[in-house]
Recover the amino acids of this structure.
């Protein structure tokens, strides 16, 4: 029996031993499933398959967003009080600048070198954004900082139609985020990462191992460096002539553990699947929040809208991967040294399409004044609500059987985006005798979205506890009953128009005037109520007609100084 | 006069308008029999722009529309009624007392009434839209007329009687003169409506 096959047999034995061999899937229901699977004949094909993305140039991609390849740029980091190059652009590498080099040496090779400080925060953000974008491929994404990402894709293969399609989807996600990624597929996470870290030459094939039986053979020629063991350990192994993974696997296990520590042996076991390695999946965020800085300051609205477009596309992908939609979106435009310009979009119905959101945002931005050039744009979403797909109606709105299900929210959103939230509203009845509180503005299309219910709550809070009892808002079936009651009680002598604030009228000779003398048609009707809050009224109402034959609703205060006011017009 | 029956049927087509002949357009009853009798087709057109000219706001023009609004918002499925830039606040209890469904009213406060009106008319979301407009060139009214056809919507534009001499692309144009408890409706432009002023008792009860 050769060394390698003994090792493989050894690891197979270990899989059979550990009941939870397949339980690197997290969650109780999955462990139940895996124990069931382990009880039956274990088919290796049903085991996890890991797709790793290694981002070799993440340090460079994080500080240099677009078009930096042609310029001599190097990313440097302070390591033990020496500035060292950690990444370099292709143009700089051509001149001999290489990672690990001291900055002074790099400058000697290329005097025009643009040295930029490493930004580990930006790298982490980039990695998280890629993880969010990769959520489209599989929900089981885990981070491998600083420059790796692991996706469990066994279930996704059937969904997307094969390995190539899944890889292409992840590459597209990486392109949209703006990083370069090397991919590899393997049955264990560590093997996938190791495969992805192997430096690629142009045209070299994807490291792809579908079954555990093929894993050891595929790993054997890889250099030990891809495992990222400590430098001194690698050096000691190299002194023994061990530089490849296959050579390390062939060493006697007991001696290996004694010389190089049990941790290294455990790493080898995890590599070939002898030992299970659970991974924590990235928790998907509940809200979308992104901030981008343009490379130059944006001075006008069209430029801002154009800059926001890719962010909105990302938001749409983000929403799609969660099957969510938005009720509101905050857009903040940051300026240098000034408070940010904020604009908040509220949707009449939950929105998710980037072009629809972009249109509304464009309308809103066109109406806002930019106080200063924009240095950064930020989008913050509301909480998500589940997306409900709807089918198009057979009939158009306005035709027999057609209902304005889609047109009404779209109209309301368009009007709100251009004119402002508070300019578009609906009406609501309040059982109350004081005219100024008997009608109330409400958010149009209320009840349709959560945003409007929030608004309603906010309205409710404004009222005092006392008046809340008196002002129970009627809706639905109550409304018609109420309206008929009010109609009979007040005998419908109520004007169609109400002035938002009563107009003080001049009253020479104890009788009011409004564009000429007034003629009394009906009255007085006394309204005396509201003592429980601070806005009690005691008034005598009259219907009068002026010279232009408009009928007016006029009242006289019963308290001194007995002023006359115009409150309504019959229209 | 004997007319070929096929020709007669052709002449009844709504798209064909022959002088004073009454055009056959689908209409909504106004709720006032006298007014129905005078309007072409027996009521407000179901889709089209109606221009209402008044000497000042509040002489009875809104009461003329209230029965129609009550009927339109009672349809199933109901579309909306948009109020674009109204001069005052529509008083909810009075509207409800007249049977107008409040949950289908949309009030829009704007300094761009023509834009908002075009959106409301053309969207197909509204059964009717009312706009109070100070200045309007014939071209912008023409846009509104086209929007009513697109959205199958009835549009009312309220303007001052001082603009009566201006050309208008509206399908129906009428002026309102208050006469005590009643109003006189004069059709300035219509496709075959009454020539004489129509007296309408809007009498409150």
């Amino acid at each position: 029996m050769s060394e390698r096959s003994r090792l493989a047999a050894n690891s197979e034995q270990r899989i059979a031993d550990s009941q939870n061999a397949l339980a690197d899937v997290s969650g109780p229901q999955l462990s139940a499933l895996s124990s069931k699977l382990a009880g039956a004949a274990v088919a290796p094909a049903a085991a996890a398959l890991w797709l790793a993305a290694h981002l070799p140039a993440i340090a460079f991609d994080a500080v240099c967003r677009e078009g930096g390849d042609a310029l001599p740029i190097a990313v440097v980091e302070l390591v033990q009080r020496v500035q060292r190059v950690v990444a370099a652009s292709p143009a700089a590498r051509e001149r001999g600048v290489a990672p690990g080099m001291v900055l002074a040496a790099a400058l000697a090779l290329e005097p025009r070198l643009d040295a930029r400080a490493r930004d580990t925060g930006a790298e982490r953000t980039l990695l998280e954004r890629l993880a969010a974008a990769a959520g489209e491929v599989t929900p089981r994404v885990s981070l491998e900082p600083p420059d790796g990402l692991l996706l469990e894709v066994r279930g996704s293969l059937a969904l997307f139609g094969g390995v190539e399609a899944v890889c292409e989807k992840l590459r597209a996600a990486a392109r949209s985020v703006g990083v370069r990624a090397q991919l590899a597929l393997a049955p264990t996470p560590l093997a996938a990462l190791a495969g992805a870290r192997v430096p690629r030459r142009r045209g070299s094939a994807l490291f792809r191992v579908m079954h555990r039986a093929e894993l050891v053979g595929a790993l054997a020629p890889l250099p030990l460096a891809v495992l990222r063991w400590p430098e001194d350990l690698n050096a000691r192994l190299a002194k023994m002539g061990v530089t490849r993974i296959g050579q390390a696997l062939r060493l006697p296990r007991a001696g290996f553990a004694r010389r190089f520590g049990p941790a290294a042996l455990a790493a080898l076991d995890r590599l070939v699947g002898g030992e299970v390695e659970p991974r924590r999946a990235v928790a998907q965020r509940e809200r979308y929040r992104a901030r981008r800085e343009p490379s130059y300051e944006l001075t006008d609205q069209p430029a801002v809208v154009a800059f926001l477009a890719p962010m909105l596309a990302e938001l749409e992908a983000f929403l799609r991967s969660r099957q969510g939609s938005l009720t509101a979106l905050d857009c903040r435009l940051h300026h240098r040294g000034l408070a940010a310009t904020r604009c908040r979009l509220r949707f009449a119905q939950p929105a998710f399409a980037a072009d629809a959101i972009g249109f509304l945002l464009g309308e809103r931005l066109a109406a806002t004044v930019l106080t200063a050039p924009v240095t950064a744009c930020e989008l913050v979403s509301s909480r998500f609500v589940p997306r409900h797909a709807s089918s198009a109606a057979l009939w158009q709105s306005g035709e027999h059987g057609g209902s304005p299900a889609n047109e009404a929210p779209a109209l309301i959103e368009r009007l709100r985006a251009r004119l402002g939230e508070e300019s578009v509203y609906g009406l609501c009845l309040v059982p109350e005798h004081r005219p100024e509180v008997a009608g109330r503005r409400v958010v149009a299309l209320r009840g349709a979205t959560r945003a409007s219910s929030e608004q309603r709550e906010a309205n409710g809070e404004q009222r005092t506890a006392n008046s809340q009892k008196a002002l129970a808002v009627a809706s639905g079936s109550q409304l018609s009953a109420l309206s008929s009651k009010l109609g009979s009680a007040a005998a419908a002598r109520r004007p169609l128009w109400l002035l938002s604030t009563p107009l003080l009228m001049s009253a020479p000779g104890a009788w009011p005037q409004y564009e000429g003398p007034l003629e009394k048609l009906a009255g007085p009707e006394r309204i005396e109520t509201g003592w429980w809050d601070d806005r009690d009224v005691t008034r005598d109402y009259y219907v009068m007609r002026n010279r232009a034959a408009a009928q007016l609703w006029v009242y006289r205060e019963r308290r001194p100084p007995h002023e006359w006011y115009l409150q309504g017009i019959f229209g | 006069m004997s007319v070929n029956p096929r020709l007669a049927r052709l002449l009844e087509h709504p798209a064909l308008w022959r002088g004073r002949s009454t055009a056959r357009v689908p209409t909504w009853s106004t709720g006032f029999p006298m007014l129905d009798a005078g309007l072409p087709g027996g009521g407000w057109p179901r889709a089209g722009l109606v221009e209402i000219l008044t000497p000042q706001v509040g002489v009875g023009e809104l009461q003329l529309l209230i029965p129609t609004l009550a009927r339109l918002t009672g349809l199933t499925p109901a579309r909306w009624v948009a109020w674009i830039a109204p001069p005052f606040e529509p008083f909810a209890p009075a509207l409800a007392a007249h049977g107008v469904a409040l949950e289908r009213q949309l009030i829009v406060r704007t300094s761009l009434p023509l834009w908002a009106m075009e959106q409301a008319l053309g969207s197909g979301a509204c059964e009717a839209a009312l706009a109070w407009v100070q200045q309007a060139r014939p071209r912008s009214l023409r846009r509104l007329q086209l929007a009513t056809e697109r959205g199958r919507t009835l549009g009312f534009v309220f303007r001052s009687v001082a603009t009566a001499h201006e050309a208008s692309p509206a399908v129906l144009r009428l002026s309102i003169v208050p006469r005590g408890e009643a109003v006189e409706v004069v059709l300035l432009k219509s496709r075959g409506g009454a020539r004489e002023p129509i007296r309408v008792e809007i009498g409150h009860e």
Observations:
- Chain B touches chain A through 54 residues (CB under 8 Å).
- The first helix of chain B runs from residue 5 to 11.
- The CA atoms of residues 100 and 146 of chain B lie 27 Å apart.
- The two ends of chain B are 47 Å apart (CA to CA).
